[in-house]
Amino acid sequence: MSCKSSLRIGGPFGSETSISILQKELSGHFPSDEQSSTTSLQITNKYFGANVELVPFDHTYSSDSLHKEDGILLIFPCKTQIDTLTDLHNTLESTVPEVGDTLRLCISTHVPSDIDTTSKLYEETYSQRVLWCLDRGYEYIEVDITEGGLRAGFDDREKDGFARVVEAMNGTVWSSAVMGKSKASIAQTLLNSCDDENQPVKEEKPKANEDKIPETEKPVESPSTDCSENNIVSDKKEDNEDQEEDLFNNFEQMVNEAKRIREASHSGNLTDEERRARAGNAAEMLMGLLGQMGFDEEDDDDGSSYDSNSNQ
């Protein structure tokens, strides 16, 4: 039985309709063949696949359940006062101490007639909600739950609304994620290559029963006629080693940058727009590094290298 990622979904009284709509839409974007009492999602991209289930805030697992708490979807109607969500959030964290923070989305739902984005009241409310979310590790997203709103924005580079919810879930490295076979093979090859280079060179010892040839009797080796070719091969090998070292150094820097962005978000030093901009730049740099490592090669015609059956 494979491990599942658990994503808590819920909201205050009056959010039931919005929760139902978003659950249905997420099931359509991440369909799963698994039958269960909860909403199961199969999140798959060209790097990995993950089994994620949406469970209510008050859902309890059996002691032998193989699951990992990975986050929260806190959903509420746009006219809700953000401070009224504090008790709900605190109750969830106290009743489910292991509730995850891999992905936390605070989603305000509306129809176009509910809000006026040009008003001063909207700006003040938006700022209050962003600050509330930063203090508790959420990303704040406003979602238009009309048919048009749920379909809009998927072709935009900077996504908002429901398109951003899907993007965030698709890009999260879930605890249940299983890397595609070919990608795992490439990664292991890189790691093995590094391990081999770090191993000390073993000196060959002469056999005990091997007669030593006196210095005066050793044959004189004639000068090699292909020294230049050997030098070229040696130079290429050194260049490849330098390139691999640079790639892994850059990858380590990317991980550190992601940590800095997360810490700055929690401390409130970044606005929501600044955080998303820095995260977007970091993601582009990461994709570039993965491409240099060979992770951008497709293994089949449809562009997906993950076999969903491998996780069953």
TrEMBL record:
Q: Where is the composition biased (Polar residues)?
A: 222-233
Q: Which InterPro entries match?
A: Alpha/Gamma-adaptin-bd_p34
Query: Which Pfam families does the record cross-reference, listed alphabetically?
Result: Adaptin_binding
Q: Which domain of life is it from?
A: Eukaryota
Looking at the UniProt entry, the stretches that span the membrane are none
Stretches with biased composition (Basic and acidic residues): 199-220
Which residue ranges does the record annotate as region Disordered? 194-243, 293-312
Which Gene3D superfamilies does its entry note? 3.40.50.11960
Compositional bias (Acidic residues): 295-304
> By what name is this protein known?
Uncharacterized protein
Please name the source species: Chaetoceros tenuissimus
Lineage of producing organism: Eukaryota, Sar, Stramenopiles, Ochrophyta, Bacillariophyta
